[in-house]
């Protein structure tokens, strides 16, 4: 019987204490396309109505969650395990940032391995006995004076870093709002319009500085990332100011 190779890491909640946090973790997982939740010895038993209520649309993550009585059972089929912790531990292990950990997880999963990420209980996090079963530690760079993360926050952060490994995401997208970038000829016309009106208003003074002032003004227009809508508005603004001055 063939086993379907994993396509994402399993997120393992170790002895979670509140159903609400389990539900919030499920919601955070599904936000980033993760559906393999494992729950180890939940304090309030399973299933948990509070978890279902908090999941808010991510119920399928809870429905498919695998519940284990202890951590060795939950990790039995895993070949590489990360343990998330904010505290220093007296254990010799490599420590990864979330980004580096999920990059390694993606590599191992692509090679057909099953990867798990451990998250500790809300009160004190993972114990050394839990971490001793992991291959590596994930430590989030946070404020050392307030390093504790809520369970769902930690799940969300790891999920985000996992999704970043799944594709090329453009860091900045410019929304054009129904317009296009202005062409050079349109900006040239705008610059000439302003130069003429400012000449009429006596702006370019004293005369021996006029040439450099005009050059600086044109340089300013060329630096601005103007759209066609921007150019039209600036033309209209100047026309209205001239009309108002003439009426006065």
From TrEMBL:
**What EC designation does it have?**
2.1.1.200
What CDD domains does the database record attribute to this sequence? SpoU-like_TrmJ
> If you read the UniProt record, what top EC class would you report for this enzyme, in one word?
transferase
Query: GO biological process: what's one of them?
Result: tRNA nucleoside ribose methylation
Q: Where in the cell is it found?
A: Cytoplasm
Principal place where this protein is found?
A: cytoplasm
Q: Name one GO cellular component term.
A: cytosol
A GO MF label: RNA binding
Limits of the tRNA/rRNA methyltransferase SpoU type domain: 11-160
Which keywords does this chain's UniProt record carry?
Cytoplasm, Methyltransferase, S-adenosyl-L-methionine, Transferase, tRNA processing
Ranges annotated as spanning the membrane: none
Q: Which reaction does it catalyse?
A: uridine(32) in tRNA + S-adenosyl-L-methionine = 2'-O-methyluridine(32) in tRNA + S-adenosyl-L-homocysteine + H(+); cytidine(32) in tRNA + S-adenosyl-L-methionine = 2'-O-methylcytidine(32) in tRNA + S-adenosyl-L-homocysteine + H(+)
- What is the protein's known function? Catalyzes the formation of 2'O-methylated cytidine (Cm32) or 2'O-methylated uridine (Um32) at position 32 in tRNA.
Give the family per the record: Belongs to the class IV-like SAM-binding methyltransferase superfamily. RNA methyltransferase TrmH family.
PANTHER family per UniProt: TRNA/RRNA METHYLTRANSFERASE (PTHR42786), TRNA_RRNA METHYLTRANSFERASE SPOU TYPE DOMAIN-CONTAINING PROTEIN (PTHR42786:SF7)
Subunit and interaction comment:
Homodimer.
NCBIfam families documented for this protein = rRNA_methyl_1
The name on file for this protein is tRNA (cytidine/uridine-2'-O-)-methyltransferase TrmJ
Lineage of this protein's species? Bacteria, Pseudomonadati, Pseudomonadota, Alphaproteobacteria, Rhodobacterales
Q: What is the gene name? A: trmJ
């Amino acid at each position: 019987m063939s086993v379907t190779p994993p396509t994402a890491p399993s997120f393992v909640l170790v002895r979670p204490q509140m159903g609400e946090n389990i539900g919030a973790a499920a919601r955070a997982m599904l936000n980033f396309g993760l559906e393999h939740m494992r729950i180890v010895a939940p304090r309030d038993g399973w299933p948990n109505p509070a978890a279902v209520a908090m999941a808010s649309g991510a119920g399928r993550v809870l429905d498919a969650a695998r519940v284990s009585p202890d951590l060795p059972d939950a990790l039995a089929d895993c070949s590489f395990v990360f343990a998330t912790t904010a505290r220093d531990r007296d254990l010799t292990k490599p420590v990864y940032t979330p980004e580096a950990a999920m990059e390694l997880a993606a590599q191992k999963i692509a090679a057909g391995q099953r990867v798990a990420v451990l998250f500790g209980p809300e009160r004190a996090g993972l114990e050394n006995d839990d971490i001793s079963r992991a291959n590596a530690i994930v430590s989030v760079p946070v404020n050392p004076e307030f390093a504790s993360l809520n369970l769902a926050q930690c799940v969300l952060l790891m999920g985000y870093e996992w999704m970043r490994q799944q594709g090329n995401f453009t860091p900045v997208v410019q929304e054009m709002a129904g317009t296009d970038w202005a062409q050079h000829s349109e900006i040239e016309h705008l610059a000439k319009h302003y130069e003429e009106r400012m000449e009429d208003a006596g702006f370019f003074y004293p005369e021996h500085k006029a040439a450099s002032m005009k050059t600086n003004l044109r340089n300013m227009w060329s630096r601005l990332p103007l759209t066609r809508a921007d150019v039209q508005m600036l033309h209209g603004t100047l026309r209205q100011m001239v009309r108002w001055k003439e009426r006065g």
